[in-house]
Task: structure prediction
Amino acid sequence: MTDQELHLLLEDMSLQEKIDQLLQLTADFYGKTDRDVVTGPASELGISMEDIDLAGSVLNGTGAKALMQIQDAYMDRHPHHIPLLFMMDVIHGYRTIFPAPIAQGASFDPEISKRAASVAARETSAAGIHVVFSPMVDLVRDPRWGRVMESTGEDPYLNSRFAAAQIHGFQGDDMKEDGKVCGCIKHFAGYGGAEAGREYNTVQVSEHTFREYYLPSYEAGIKAGAGMVMTSFNTVNDIPATINQKLMRQMLREEMGFDGVLISDYAAILETVAHGASSDKKDAAHKALLAGVDIDMMTGCYAGELAKLVKEGTIPESLIDESVLRILQLKNQLGLFEHPHKDADPEKEARYILCPEHRALAREAAAASCVLLKNDKVLPIRPSQKVAFIGPYIDNYEICSSWAVTGHPEDSVTIRQAAKELLPDSDLTFCHGTTLLPRDHVFAGFAEPNRAEEFYADVFADPEKALADAVAAAKAADVVILCLGEHYLQTGEATSRTELSLPENQMELFCAVKTVNPNVAVVLFNGHPLLLDELSRNAAAILQAWLPGTEGGHAILDLLTGTKNPSGKLPMTFPRNMGQIPIYYNHFSTGRPLTGTDPQRFVSKYTDTPNTPLFPFGYGLSYAEFSYSDVSLSSDSLTSEDSITASVQLKNTGACTGTEVVQLYIQDVAASTVRPVRELKGFTRITLTPGETQTVSFRISEAELSFHRADGSYGTEPGAFRVWIGGSSATENGTGFTLR
Ligand code: BGC
Result:
């Protein structure tokens, strides 16, 4: 349709038709689909049958055949035959599940995320869906927050690179194209800054901090062309984001230039009443529309109240028209007026889903996401070794995440399956030793089945024997691969925790096994950064495998056997204990910084714990070893018009080929607002054979040195800068230059 045709269509629509375009309902309102997923609270919407009949978009139903039928029936009854938009939470894959976003962040490889998003888009669109609620780009500095696993971590630059990459992967150059979908940047804004890491909690940050650290990743996604943005549940500096006019009208639309569709999060408009910011549904609808929220996800606020507000003259109809036009434009950008089924096709759906090409990429991405945290030469294992695979994760196929809503956990490759397949001639033993969680653990409020009885029947039958078998297997083995971690329902939305240690039963298993065999390599499955102090002191190796997705077992075995070499780096700081939280690498210096190990009294420190984390941001080992030369600069000064190059010679001094993520950090030494002690400004993955050396260079110009200055403007300030190039945020390999 042309723009003019869209305007004519809008003019011809009744007020109710228009308002119903702004309503989004879950798929169960329309009949059964292949997978109807409920991701929010069930409540009485108080809307009419007519509203249901005319609602403009559908949430979380899928399956080409079912959605084509729903579309046809809807368009038949709609007075203007406007197609529905189908939207779904496709967070890290549709049916082929890729590693959780936090794991993808650990790959420091936005290109692989782009390819994963493109595969997800292909499966998703064949299943009849037009919009994915992804990527989530919320910056998070607090590992207590449950949704930490949905984010790519604590760094604005890293998050921005992944936000843009994923939007390109989902949308391509044109969302109309076969196999492309519209992406939705969420949750605008600041959701990851929840106080004390508690889900949905208050966010209080200075405008400077908000602009400097929280906003860049949303902006990067918008610049990449995201067609949609979702509001967040939280307040931002005293006003709920969903009705926050400054946030939505000024920052999002005016400053970032976003002209796509803005959708509320699930029931977020109505929740402004519970926040104490709206007096009732009508007030909430009024405020959300004033803020420019186009679609009301799963409440009756818009459908029930907007017509009244127009009729009594409180809001002009033109405000509703603006929102409707944006929604019609998105439908048009997706080509739905001409092709209401877009790519929905049961034959393609069957062909693409879990096809070998998709599985191969999931395996590659999962291997690239794992982070080797420690290795006392116990890894990789050799086929001639006798290996005991022990722990609750050896047979557990729930290794995707609570946001793999369209995935089927049974599709996943487990550790046992992969070990048997990839080490067919080795002497292997397998035993659980213990369960993932104590038997009486309850997931209060969760509807998902607890498969503990299925996975750990042997342990429940005789816990002492299960432990004794594990100890015997460990004793008889050359090396133990101990697979521990969190249950997948302990991470994701509404799973914030105040304690991030592994459960006691798992640590008891570790101690028992370790007592009889020092060669214990721990493989960790988790979404939160966990407290690993004890493991890091006593395990011979730790491989941080996150929630690796459908091909997790294969990818982990590829790494354990040395077929592939670990290359991931931590996208979040791992604390030593809960008391250090929040802890992040790009913090400010205090006026009394702790320098060196000098135990002065009046400096910024704890009396019972070092200031440093257990594992810093950007940290990760390889089976290869890398040495860095000193940093050399093409010049020790630059102006805001030119650039300099910072280089190192990177050498693989190890015995095998490996990939190193080379990271560039910069500090503005003195400025009108305090600048962090260092900030990531560039990274690149370099693969070297043993003995090989390569020059790795980064360009430094105004873009890397700009910040939000004290007067509110954005730009640089002359003065001294420090620059480091190394393998983690803790590198001391640095030098300095001056901006004139
Ligand atoms: C989540 C969103 C999600 C939405 C729809 C909400 O509870 O916060 O991230 O996209 O549900 O399922």
About this structure: The first strand starts at residue 23 and ends at 26. The pocket of beta-D-glucopyranose is lined by residues 39-40, 60, 89, 133, 186, 265-266, 493 (CB under 6 Å). The chain has a mean pLDDT of 96.
